[in-house]
Structures are given as structure tokens and as C-alpha cells.
Amino acid sequence: MRLNLAVLCAVAILCELRPAAHAQQANLPSLPSGWPPEAGRVTAGPDGSSYVPVDNWIYAALDRLQALGYVDSAYLGLRPWTRLSIAHMLERSADRITSEKNNDTARTIYFAVLREVRPDIDRVTSLRRPRVELDSVYTVMRGIGGLPLRDSYHLGQSIVDDYGRPYENGFNNYSGFSARAELGRFSLYWRGEFQHAPSAAGYSPALAAYLSNTIDGIPFATNPQQETIPEGPIAEADDMRVMEANLSFHLLGHEISFGKDDHWLGPDAGASMLWSDNAEDIYDFEINRVEPLDIPLLSRLTGPFRYDFFVGSLKGHTDPNSPWVHMEKISFKPTRNLEFGFDRMTIWGGKNHEPITLHTFLRSFFSFQNVSPAVKNSPEDPGYRVGTFDFTYRLPFLRNWVTLYTDSLVHDDVSPISAPRRSGVHPGIYLARFPGMEKLDLRVEGANTDTPSSSGAYGQFLYWETIQRQGPTNQGFLVGDWVGRQGKGGQAWLTYHLSPRELVQLQYRRAKAASVFIPGGTTQNDFGLLVAKRVLRDVEMRGCVQYERWKAPLYQPGAQSDTTLAVQVTWFPFEREQVH
């Protein structure tokens, strides 16, 4: 995404001529004992802490606080964060936020997040005793009128970034609860829900066979049932699903965990090209450096950095069956205004292809070059390998106003930096406030996987591979960007913040698949309105309405439309017990 320097200068001049009006001092809650800490007393400590799910309001709040010039130790390209790591981010920014004047918006966000993690701070500073907490109880009622799309691997999705929940025309419901426990270095988090979705007609056998044989290159005769192709009839869904369940042990700034974890591996708000919450979480083993690491001499050049590694199995694959995936990422902060990171992800193995063993894992881990078709079709296949590069940069002269960022992904190359014509990109720009309107912000993002090198690939390039033909999917949904294979699109959000946890937001999303991938192409245009409001101190209500118009001539003739109305009610029991 290119920015016009003249526009930036004009915005800067306007900001100088018309300084933002500041609200009166908010009625802020009291600080924990000994907070903010003395200068230099920033310690990670030995205690374990549970992760905060990536759909929690805290991430948007801290993203905005970072864009306003604070929480410089927040790594936006490596999420989720633990509750204590969030407390340490606030600790590092406490002096500046609490001492600087005319920053009421930042202070309000800061105190709201601090209030959320205050019990974790109190637990560390008091005697170490087991803490068990019912985190939330919720229900989501979603009604859909019209025919929605739910095929992220081919024709598109109407509901994105929703953990791969089932949805169809009619009444859908997701009701569940979350809980967590901490004791010393150990932490446990669990979230589960009951899911209901109506039955549906699904794709015809002819369409399913075409997508499988021609688009994916998978013989439909031997693979008649595939999670990536919603062939009908689709039965009514009434399932209990574990959304997240992980047990962690804290060791030297790392959380070592087993279970079902969230991951969001990019700075974008709408999608991560490598891994997002668009699909159901996987069961994995993870080693995550949750606190910034400084290495003498090296960090003078790179700044502090964080890294993450996980390995686990992908479900819903039938060609080959049950492959595994491993991911490695490292992110650097050479300055307080710049963050950049590199990822590498490999999908390898699977029934009737190669076994999942330590030997095949190590071969896929240390393979960094293209191999011949003969090797790909042999037990020596190193797997489907992709690399990513992302960065976040608070722009000069507009440090506390405008943030530029991008995410990019390349297949069979070490990094998108070395192969830009083969890389998909998801750039964005975030205006954290408007002159004279402190509570209003704007975010715009683009997305493109229809690269110059994939123009004649017929969808068989990014998010597809010669052996792993169902690509980076889990239970049928892409784990990466909703724009899908050989597509272009974008999103925009205009948000008015009533408070750090309350908002009114206008949304727009567009996605378009190339006609050389899907005959006739596909087009989606989504318009949405989201309202989040606290009706009581410990009860939150969220209402969302989305209208979508889409075209997919291969599936349905002419223009189609669907309307989604969703209401979520969440009770936070622990907040009733918190002291203001």
C-alpha cells in the first residue's frame, strides 16, 4: 500500500492547526498497591499465566493504545498474549501514561485493561495460592436469511474469523463458558460450547465433483466426502466443541503448553495470512517466548525480540489423511515505532504418503530449497512450505496518529522479501483518532493472493500444493486469510468508541476470486453494523447485522443475497467481585 506524502503532510498540518479536544478527566479506577512500579522495576517473574483468546476486546484496545504511542513492548504480529505479559506491557508504559497530560483517551484504555488483569497482578504480589475462576458464560444467537457461503477454500465465506463454527440459513446458536486456573508456574484455560446449525441442501454432486477433480486435483471417485467441499445434503449440527483447552508451564519467560490454542500471526485486524481464528483451533505442543528477550550486542541491532513454535495435527484432510503442521516465528522491535517478523510453516506427512516421525519432522524442519517432483511424490517429501514477512510502523510526524502495516506470504521460497512477485499481501493503515474526534478511528486493509506468478495457476499456487492438495485448512476452513486462493479483496472499519469495551462500528468487506480459478469468478460485498454495550457492570451485549450480496455463477445463477442478525450476551462473573 503506497501513501501519498502530500496527504500525510496535509494531515500533519491540520493536526497542528486544530489540536484535538480532550475530554474531561475520566473517573478512573484505583491502581493496585505499588502501581505504577518504580522506574526500571520491570520483571517477568516465574509465575505462569493463561492466554487471553484472540477474540477478546483487550487486543483491539491495546492495538489502539499502541497506535496512540504507548505499550511499545506489544508484539502485534505474535498473538495471543498471556494475562501477565499484558500486565508487563502496561507496567513498561505506566510512567508515561500516568504522567503525561492531555492523553485522556490513552489513560482510559490503560486503566480499563489494567482493571481486567488486576487480579493477576494481585495474585503475583500476594501469597501464591491456587486461583480458579469462571471467566465467562455466553450465548450467541445468529439468524441468517438467504443462502450464505461457507466454503473458504473455493467460493468464499459469509461469516469469517469465527473459529470455523457451523452456520446455515435459519437459526444458529453457540452457547458456552470459559474458565481458568493458575498455581505458581502452572496455568490452565478451557473454553467450550454447544453449537447448533440448521440442515442445508449443500453443493450438488456435480459441483462437488468439479471442485474436487478440476480445481483441487483430487479424484472425487476415491474421495467423495471432503470437509473443504460442503456437498449436500448437510445434516443439522448439534455438537459440543472444545474451543480452547491448554495446560501451560512457565519457564524462563516461556510458556510451554499442550492442548488447543489460539494463534494470530500477523498485525492485521481482519486476517492473518499464515494463521488466524478463521478455522477451528488445532491440538498442538507449543513453546512461546511470551516476554521480550534482550541479548547483549545482538539486541543493539535488532532490539528485543520474541519467538514462537508449535507443532500439531490438521483435521479434515483426506488427500493425504491427517497431515501435521509446524510453525516457527520470530519478531523484532529495533525501535519503539517499528516491529517486523518472519514466519515459516510446513505441512508434512499423512496416511499413505509419509509417516509422522521425528525423522520426517526434522527433514521438513531443515529443508529450505525446492525439490524435484520425484522427491515430492516419495517418502522423502519435505512437505508444503510457506514463509511470511510482516511489519508494523508508526509513521514519522504522525507517530500517535497513523500506523502502517502489512502481512505477506510466499510458497516454496524462504521469504516474501526475496520473491515479491510470488507473494500474497495483506496491507493496512490505521488512523487511531481524528482531529477533534478522539473517540473515532478508521482502519482500512487490502488483500491479494492473485499474484503475477499465479495468474495461470488456476488456483493451484498459494494455499494449495502438489501433495497437500487441501492446503492449510483445518476441519474444512482455511487457517489463513479469508480472501482465499487467487483472490483480491479488502476490509474497512469506522469505529466510534463509547468506552474501551463499548463501541459502534460500521464494517465493509469485499472479496473476489479470479475467473481463471473459479469459472465466472466470485464476488462478495458485505456491509455490517456492530454495537457493543455494557448493560450491567458484568454483562455485555453485542449486536451485529450484516447484509451480503454475492455472485458465484458456478454455484447459483445471478446475484444472491443473505442477511445475518446476531446477538451475543456474555456474563463475566469475576467482574462482580473486583474492587473498583
List the helices and strands and how they pair.
Layout: H1 5-17, H2 57-67, H3 83-99, H4 104-125, E1 131-146, E2 150-151, E3 156-157, E4 170-183, E5 186-197, H5 205-216, E6 237-251, E7 254-260, E8 283-289, H6 298-302, E9 305-313, E10 324-335, E11 338-348, H7 358-365, H8 373-376, E12 384-394, E13 402-411, E14 423-431, E15 440-448, E16 473-474, E17 477-478, E18 487-499, E19 502-513, E20 522-536, E21 539-552, E22 556-571, H9 573-577
Antiparallel strand pairs: 1-4, 1-22, 2-3, 4-5, 5-6, 6-7, 7-8, 8-9, 9-10, 10-11, 11-12, 12-13, 13-14, 14-15, 15-18, 16-17, 18-19, 19-20, 20-21, 21-22
Question: How many helix segments?
Answer: 9
Shape: globular
CATH domain class: Mainly Beta
**Total domain modules:** 1
User: Which secondary-structure class do the elements indicate?
Assistant: alpha+beta
CATH architecture: Beta Barrel
Describe this structure as you would to a colleague.
The protein is globular and about 65 Å long. The strands form 3 sheets. It has an 18-stranded antiparallel β-barrel. The protein starts with a helix and ends with a helix. It has 9 helices and 22 strands. β18 (487-499) and β19 form a beta hairpin. The chain has 580 residues and is of the alpha+beta class.
Characteristics of this structure?
580 residues; alpha+beta; Porin; 18-stranded antiparallel barrel; two-stranded antiparallel sheet; 9 helices; 22 strands; globular; disordered N terminus
Compact overview of the structure:
With 580 residues, the chain is an alpha+beta fold. Helices cover 17% and strands 38% of the residues.
